[in-house]
């Protein structure tokens, strides 16, 4: 009888667990059994199990947290294109979900020095500061920290009046049309971004650090939006 190689055994584990993930035996976010348990189940060594787990990670099906275990990656709730400039709410609707906005902070204050430099405005500028949790069918997909020049709002405006999509407010209430976004994209790991119920489980993000302008290149908003990794999926279309 020919002895099967570790690679062949690992491939069998990969195919089995891949099938179980896709059939819902291990749902998104679920922790897989330990290496010892998988080794016992498949009658293989821990080294073989590790090889299988590494392959599942490469395939984008699982991720491993040191000391905590291996988890099934979350399936994206929302798909969007980085080349597009538009409302997050519209992207959520296009993904067949119902968007929601939970405002945790709305206040007017002076801009900080580093913010003034990023926004290209005077250090004397006042801004409306917003802090939002953005949801799709009630599940949080992003945390956004937004600064809007106070001069954009009517004199009677009071912080606390905003609700729903900021882009929709720009369009419907102010007659402003955002047309240009200059964005920097970063991967972020932090325990200090998320807030509200379930915040503890959100620590990996894709940050879109973005300046929004209208057709006259007037600054409309500086936003730092932290999209939960694996929940909000971006695609970038590149052509030659």
TrEMBL record:
User: Which SUPFAM superfamilies is this protein grouped with?
Assistant: Chorismate lyase-like, Winged helix' DNA-binding domain
> Could you tell me which residue ranges the HTH gntR-type domain spans?
7-75
Gene Ontology process terms (BP)? negative regulation of DNA-templated transcription
Cross-referenced InterPro entries, in alphabetical order? Bact_HTH_transcr_reg, Chorismate_lyase_/UTRA_dom_sf, Tscrpt_reg_HTH_GntR, UTRA, WH-like_DNA-bd_sf, WH_DNA-bd_sf
Q: Does the keyword Lipid biosynthesis apply?
A: no
Q: Name one Pfam family in it.
A: GntR
Arranged from A to Z, the UniProt key words for this protein are:
DNA-binding, Transcription, Transcription regulation
Which Gene Ontology molecular function entries are recorded, alphabetically?
Answer: DNA binding; DNA-binding transcription factor activity
Q: What is this protein called?
A: GntR family transcriptional regulator
